Amino acid sequence: MNGVSQTNEKVEAKAFTTSDIWKFLIPSLIGILLFIVPITTEDGITIPVAYLAGQINVYLGEVIPAMTVMIMALSVIGSLIAITIKPALITKSRYLSTLFIISPFWLVARVLGTVFAVMTIYQLGPGMVFSENTGGLLIYDLIPILFSTFLLAGLLLPLLLNFGLLEFFGALLLKVMRPVFTLPGRSSLDCLASWVGDGTIGVLLTTKQYEEGYYTKREAAVIATTFSVVSITFTIVVISYLNLEQYFLHYYATIIFAGLVAALIMPRIPPLSRKPNTGYERTELKNETGIPSDFSVVKWGFHQAVTKAKKNNGPVSVVKEGVQNVMDMWLGVLPIVMAIGTVALVIAEYTPFFTYLGKPFEPILTIMQVPEASEAAQTMVVGFADMFLPAVIGSGIESELTRFVIACVSVTQLIYMSEMGGLLLGSKLPVSIVDLILIFLIRTCITLPIVVVIAHMIF
């Protein structure tokens, strides 16, 4: 079985102390409550971390855009100093060198993101850069959400990562995730955190696991582009915007079914299937071990989890790792999201590029008997720029069937440059812009027929 080291050796069940067991249970339960357990708020269903991030935005809303511009500027200044002056403080620190010593391409992207952010804040230069549908949408709507989500998720992620919870889930779901999705059992938690919370949390979790050697390049790329699913909250926003709230249960069931079919197919075909089964270059790959014959699934998961929790170095190391997570995402990802997101939205708003790209879908939708096919065609590709754009464009379409198709397809495509695409490209995950384009188009081709068939059954 690929990626699993089988062992017939007898592993003795260790006698854990009560203290060892609590060291696994308490942080893990807090992590589950914060990242996994859904709560109902006046804005809908979410998770505590996402809710708390929203509260930070409420109290700091007006100052966050200015703060993020300063963070982006610090990212650029730090990179320029690291690359030109090469101070020992940075070059001798593995963490700082990884953060600031970057390739020319990513340096240009950081500079561009910072310039776009300054132009938007002060409304300088061409209006297409800072309009409310391009740079303004990012700096005032999306970036503040990412700022607060990265802050809380980054600080609190060690609760999921360092105290055995992933080891426990990995053992429980090893026999499901590996044969069905070609992935380690522990990846199930990434999916769950994305599903009830936010796809960005899933990407952050996947990135940390990849950097620590728990995923191969192929596994990390599959998980990030296939299992960092859209949150329940966002799906409600989309269906409400398209005035189809009464079909929410049909809509969400369709998303789950189409998403599962895509998750079965995508890891087994290029470009994801061609990713190497090697680990992150800066760390040693940790193979997922099989369950010894003298252990039950639950007992082995518990054994692995408590063993992991015992190795934790205490609260100081947890806080240090949490702060480093936050700085990684703030300095490394925010300017990239701003750069890539602004360019993508300017192209979508001010050029016919996506209209032309959508033309091939017009005859396909016509053959599938989707009403108003010409109006719906561009929504099949414009979601690559931003996931909400198909709903905006499709809101004027009269046919409920067509609006239902647009709502489902836009959510199951997953890859959109204004947030997820920028996040993936800004991370250390092994995906390129070409990969993202191909994955987006393949996911569209897989999910569109499924969605249309179900839509015809409903309407």
How would you describe the overall organization of this protein?
By secondary structure, the protein is mainly alpha-helical. It is 69% helix and 2% strand. It has 26 helices and four strands. A two-stranded parallel sheet has the order 1-4. A two-stranded antiparallel sheet has the order 2-3. Helix 2 packs across helix 8, helix 8 packs antiparallel against helix 17 and helix 15 packs across helix 24. The longest helix has 26 residues. It is globular. The mean pLDDT is 87.
Kindly report the average pLDDT value: 87
Low-confidence stretches: none
Taking the alpha carbons of the first and last residues, their distance comes to 44 Å
**Strand arrangement, major sheet:** 1-4
Element order: H for helix, E for strand: EHEEHHHHHHHHHHHHHHEHHHHHHHHHHH
Taken as a percent bin, the fraction of beta residues is under 5%
How many helices in DSSP terms?
26
Roughly what percent helix?
A: 55-70%
